[in-house]
Amino acid sequence: MHCQQFHPRQLNRRDMLRHCAMGFGGVAMQALLHDEAIAAPGTSDPLAPKTPHFPAKARNVIFLYMDGGPSQVDTFDYKPLLEKYHGRDPREVIGELAPTQFDNVGKVLKSQWAFKQRGESGAWVSDLFPHLADPEVIDEIAFVKSMTSKFSEHTSANYFLHTGSGLQGRPSMGAWFGYGLGTMNRNLPGFVVLNGGLIPPGGLDCFGSGFLPAAYQGSIFLPREQPIANIHPSEAKPELQKNKLRLISQLDQSVLAASGYDPQIEGMIGNYETAFRMQSSVPELTDLTGEPESVKKLYGLEAEYENTRTFGRQCLLARRLVERGVRFIELTCPNGNGDRWDQHGNLFDGHTKNCKTVDQPVAALIKDLRRTGLLDSTLIVWAGEFGRTPFAQGADGRDHNPFGFTVWMAGGGVKGGVSVGATDEWGYKAVQDRFEMYDLHATMLHLLGIDHTKSTFRFSGRDMRLTDVHGHVIEGILG
Fold this sequence. Notes:
nine-stranded mixed β-sheet; 12 helices; 19 strands; Alkaline Phosphatase, subunit A; globular; disordered N terminus
């Protein structure tokens, strides 16, 4: 007989999640073992494709990270005054100098490489870049010659470039792009870092997801046939692997049942799903046997210099990742060129080796993306964390310079053959259209259809974004 005093207790949200927790892992594992389809927009899947704020010019980003800080006055920012006053005390001819990283200020130092105007655009390029100087390449590039940073030390400057903050632990660019747009291929991560051998100062937090869900963090690949560990199953039969995955699911479910819904645990289950799918997609991605020999040669895979071959493979893999829908790809520099681009001494040898490493592969990437019809939808960004001083550190080096340096972009809605901003006549400080990293980030997001002021995530009591409360789109480079 029904007791008149009994009234069913309503479940609150926390109780519902606690009682239903057993189902979450099962849903994820069902997708892991059976469903290969990309989740439809509007689902709770954090990697599901999302509609941009407005029509996008680009769909993918290739970020060519020049670790250490290339010298703008030796690469793309020609300053003839350095030749005239070479060897003079910079305090006498330039004037007051800001403190440098090491405060070992030498004489005014001219570039050791000749500059020429290249292509129809007449862009100034030094002899360090014979392949980028090709008119077919240089006229695709838009230079920003007045970029600045708030930091003159590598670690903080790297965080600032990668995350928009000089502090550790914030989400990286690649994570923000995945958060804003999702992924186009669930068989591969949405954010891939092709590690040529040098993880930058600041470590893996340069590629992390910070307070965003863990699904958006960068996955580190090496430019080789087996880019990550355990990509090939160790089990003799697929059924054995699936049995292990079911056991993992049961263990996850028991934890979820005890603790309630935990996004971190759900993120771990999602990582197992991606890892399972990558075992079939990654070997095909890194198998270059189907690439024409002419393409391999274009990228420098037959070059005498080992680092050219390494970076060439990275650039070719970047193109293949774009073809497969990976949203954000970052390339780091190979080891063995001295100290990255960070030439506090022996500038000629270090910058010569670094340019020999990247020049041919990057030029090939631009040509190959155009050949395959992908350049218009792929944004290429070339940048270091800061530049170098126009005066020497010691006798033959250059110290860190955050006050004015050059970055460039190509493809993906960028107007090729233009240059915006300028440094002073020494190449020391930005004096025309001074831009900050926030502006670079805002422009990158804009080209992929994202309003940087609206791409926010609620954390620690406020709406956070890549550009914080700053940032303006660099209109002069938009196509």
